[in-house]
Amino acid sequence: MTIQLYDYQENLVSKTRKAYIDGYKAPCIVAPCGAGKSIMIAEVAKMTTEKGNRVLFLVHRKELLDQIQETFKTVGVNFELVTFGMVMTIVNKLDRLPRPSLIITDENHHGLAASYKKIYDYYSDVLRLGFTATPIRLNGSGLGDVNDLLIEEVSVSWLIEHKRLAPYEYYAPKLIDTDELKKASTGDFTKKSMDKAVGNTIYGDVIKHYESLAENEQAIAYCHSIEASKHTAEIFNQTGYEAAHIDAKTPKIERESIIQQFRDREIKILCNVDLIGEGFDVPDCTTVIMLRPTKSLSLFIQQAMRGMRYRPNKTSIIIDHVGNVNQFGLPDTERKWTLAAKKKSNTGSDITVVQCKKCFGAYEQNPERLCPYCGFKQPIETKESTLKKDEEQELEKVSQSDFKIVMDFRKPEDCKSLKELQELAKNKGYKPGWAWHQAKVHGLIN
Ligand SMILES: [Zn+2]
Asked: How many angstroms does the Cα of residue 363 sit away from the middle of ligand 1?
């Protein structure tokens, strides 16, 4: 069976073909979640096997394998010429495998792990192709050590514009103490520090925001630990919203029944840690509730975009309680990917995301300073804090409301440590020296 590829998918595939002609050995296709990655992978595999050449297809999670095999079947890839495998399995039987002509690696950003390297080294003269939405590792480095070219064609905003992804609204009422977060050697936050940061979260506020922003919508809640996920489900249940928790140890039958109830809208809120991620098929939903801070752009993107599967007239609602947006920007923030080892702009951290003082909406700054969600006009943030009188009053009003204090408008005298001053400086675009100076002035350092 032939499946008609969209123009942009076609372009990506032909750009890849050209890359090999031009002498590249290991290009990587960068395509956002929702771009139809599986269909492109299947197309490449089909082209390869039709010439009688063998494909080795690598994944790091079993769920990804189930998904891709379905698509290969639909497209009509010759299974006799494909070896599917989990990296961990393949690496242990390299000497017993038929030699491939092409190695395809899904979720290619995991590619630095020793097992991948071992496979690539073993087949050092075999062509490779990677796929990822986020060609960046947890430590912020690019993929230059495993790939020699990044092939891009469409962005998230393009896919939204062309009805391949649903548009979204992003709200970021922060409910955790992000100052507590500490990075582990693996690159993401430590469990202990997340426990601390999330510890004082008032779950009533989680419910309150769900009710005001996404009432009765089908939602997936991402939590930082199994305990927190169970707790979140419990609180929702107590308030009268049917909720359930699932994790990797939930028995298959129970998990399937929960997913089915979620599909039937009998369960409104599905709580998990990082289970609903790459390759995990869940029914369509609109809303994502983030209670899991992360340092991983890749994880952030996957979780944030979970509700953006296209359906006519749908708008996805993302409620970020953990300040992820301040680190990574928005799902459709334009990112400049590179293969270089370190490139700050890869993470999108240089993006000016503004948070509405009134509705918590997060959006990229616009010249009119108008919130696209509620129409509130944001006060000017000036470097010399020479706010006009009326704007000051407006600010007063906002901070006196029942909303939490918004970081951006904290004054230096409100900061309790150098770290807070540095954060303030970063938010306002001041030079780092400013924070040091203020810390001295306010007696926070000697
Ligand atoms: Zn607003």
From this structure: 9
- The mean pLDDT value for 149-167 works out to 95
Rounded distance from Cα 346 to ligand 1 centre (Å): 28
219-249 residue pLDDT tens = 999 999 999 999 999 999 999 999 999 998 9
Q: What is the pLDDT of residue 347?
A: 53
**Residue whose token pair is 């796929």:** 131
Give the chain's mean pLDDT. 86
Q: Is there a single domain that holds both residue 287 and residue 235? A: yes
In this structure, the answer to whether residues 146 and 190 fall within a common structural domain is no
**Are 303 and 179 in the same domain?**
yes
Lowest mean pLDDT among 39-48, 59-68, 189-198: 59-68
Query: Does the residue 255 lie in any domain?
Result: yes
Domain boundary, last residue among 306, 331, 356: 331
279 and 208 in a single domain? The answer is yes
> Cα of 356 to ligand 1 centre, how many Å?
5
The structure tokens listed for 260 are 């089915």
Residue 384 pLDDT level (bands cut at 50, 70, 90): very low
Query: For residues 309 and 200, is the Cβ–Cβ distance under 8 A?
Result: no
27 Cα–ligand 1 center, Å: 42
13 with 131, same domain: the answer is yes
Asked if residue 172 and residue 148 are part of one domain, the reply reads no
DSSP string, 293-355: --S-HHHHHHHHGGG-B--TT--EEEEESS-HHHHH--TT------SSS--GGGGTTT--EEE
In a domain, 42, yes or no: yes
Which residue range forms the structural domain that includes residue 436?
410-446
**pTM for the full model?**
0.81
Distance in angstroms (rounded) separating the CA atoms of residues 197 and 204: 17
